[in-house]
């Protein structure tokens, strides 16, 4: 059980790290990204800090605001 939780956290961290990197590469502030996504800057900050467990819909929305898509794969353990 603990191993699965660790893997889930790692996957979420990877996605968040990628979104943050793209935002910075595009020189977009958290505030601008929040405006584009129709949310508050504090939500983007919480997402990027890992203090937020975002919904898939939220991740897709944020990625879309950065001109990206989210791809999910179901894989064997």
Automatic annotation (TrEMBL):
PROSITE patterns: HTH_CROC1 (PS50943). PANTHER family: DNA-BIDING PHAGE PROTEIN (PTHR46558:SF4), TRACRIPTIONAL REGULATORY PROTEIN-RELATED-RELATED (PTHR46558). It holds the Pfam family HTH_3. The keyword Electron transport does not apply. Keywords: DNA-binding. GO terms for molecular function: DNA binding. This is Helix-turn-helix transcriptional regulator. Transmembrane segments: none annotated. It comes from the Bacteria. It comes from Roseburia amylophila. Residues 19-73 form the HTH cro/C1-type domain.
């Amino acid at each position: 059980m603990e191993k699965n939780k660790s893997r889930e956290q790692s996957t979420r961290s990877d996605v968040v790290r990628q979104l943050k990197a793209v935002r910075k590469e595009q020189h977009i502030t958290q505030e601008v990204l929040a405006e584009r996504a129709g949310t508050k800057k504090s939500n983007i900050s919480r997402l990027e800090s890992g203090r937020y467990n975002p919904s898939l819909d939220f991740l897709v929305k944020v990625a879309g605001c950065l001109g990206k898509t989210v791809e999910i794969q179901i894989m064997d353990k």
